[in-house]
Amino acid sequence: MGETVKGLTYIDADGEEAVWTDHKRRLWLWGLFVPTALFFAVGLMVLLGLGHTPLMYLTPVLWWIGPILLYVILPIVDVRAGDDGENPPEEVMEALENSTYYRWLTFIFLPFHLASLVALCYFLTADSLTWLGGLYSDGGGLSPVSKIGLTLSLGVVTGIGINTGHELGHKKPDSERWIAKLTLAPAMYGHFFIEHNRGHHVRVATPEDPASARFGETFWEFLPRSVWGSVKSSWNLEKTRLRRLDKSPWTLRNDVLNAWMMTAVLFGTLTAIFGWYVLPFLMIQAVYGFSLLESVNYLEHYGLLRQKTASGRYERCSPRHSWNSDRIVTNVFLYHLQRHSDHHANPTRRYQTLRSFEEAPSLPHGYATLIGLTYFPPLWRKMMDHRVIEHYQGDVTRANIHPRVRDRVLAEYGADASGGRAAA
To answer: 334: helix, coil or strand?
Structure first.
């Protein structure tokens, strides 16, 4: 086994030397476009402002670069690029897992993210932006509409930053786990580090999991349930852990508290430098950021349910308990998060080695396309409900049904009130 310019060499099943190349190796660099998008947008504003041409009137749109990227550009490119369709062979998994190139791509996200937060505060409080030229050449700061766009753009960075923290938070080295908590700090979501690893991965695709959406549950019902359930669960998990150590939960050894402290220090420092004016905007971008995470949580396990065994325990989590998508563009931007079944089967596996399972239920599009659709319950249910039913071969009683709609769903799909299939 070795690594060459062309790729990873290995001995195949026939005993012959072969070379496997990660065709996404350079594409992974695009994941860093998100935390640097604001700087690209500002550079483009300067270019558009040169010479006071009509193009300078487009510059206010660029403050909305985050939502434009998330809801327009990525879905279009994702659909056109199609599926990936490639899994690394088993023989290269260890070498691919140990490659530091992929690891550093996730590490670099954090400094760019923090730099973007500083830029957010600067642009929000600047009295004059004459150096941008164009519309700003006569002085003055951002308009209220531009400030909203800028704040939501940082919310997109923060939301995708949670996914970066998710990737690092599953790893064993303490350094990576601390970087994960730092990456979650701008979202005020440091407790996710605890709840996701020790809560969601244990209870996934069950009614007890706040982060597993139920059949018939709207995103707007799911959002507060998942947010509050995540906070409550993470606190209880840490409280139980510390009790075993004969410690009070009110200590900085509590990973929920020390994670939240990172947010307090970060926001406190930015407020001390730029003034109290920036604090509401920092909080808005954080709330928008973690709402993006929750929209992804919503679609990852919608309606899927692990069945109980004869012993009363839930069956082991398998590929059929996560919705997958192999759309290559969104996978590059989200570090293979859409290969979600393999992630649940192997939580510590690094993103570059995650595989796509044919037996896993498939989403009709990539996450980038579907996030916006989760906001509109009728569209979402029209697209997804029949897929849940088909996944369970018409037996809706095997789905994770929201209690509010249970009776109606059982009646609509031909199941009796006891939970069995109705007689034909």
So the answer is: coil
Q: Which is it for the CA torsion 178, 255, 159, 39, positive or negative?
A: negative
Which region, left, alpha or beta, applies to residue 15 given φ > 0 means left and ψ of -120 to 50 means alpha? left
Cα 94 versus chain centre, distance? 26
Contacts of 382 (CB under 8 A, 6+ apart): none
Round to whole Å and give the CA distance between 304 and 300: 9
Q: What is the pTM of this model?
A: 0.93
Instruction: Find out whether 49 and 59 touch, Cβ atoms under 8 Å.
Output: yes
Which pLDDT tens digits describe the chain residue by residue (424 residues)?
Answer: 555 545 777 767 667 777 888 889 999 999 999 999 999 999 999 999 887 888 888 899 999 999 999 999 999 999 999 999 889 988 889 889 999 999 999 999 999 999 999 999 999 999 999 999 888 988 889 999 999 999 999 999 999 999 999 999 999 899 999 999 999 999 999 999 999 999 999 999 999 999 999 999 999 999 999 999 999 999 999 999 999 999 999 999 999 999 999 999 999 999 999 999 999 999 999 999 999 999 999 999 999 999 999 999 999 999 999 999 999 999 999 999 999 999 998 999 999 999 998 888 999 999 999 999 999 999 999 999 999 999 999 999 999 999 999 999 999 887 654 445 543 3
- How is the beta sheet containing 17-20 ordered, strand by strand? 2-3, 8-11, 17-20
CB within 8 A of 256, min separation 6: which ones? 190, 191, 194, 234, 235, 238
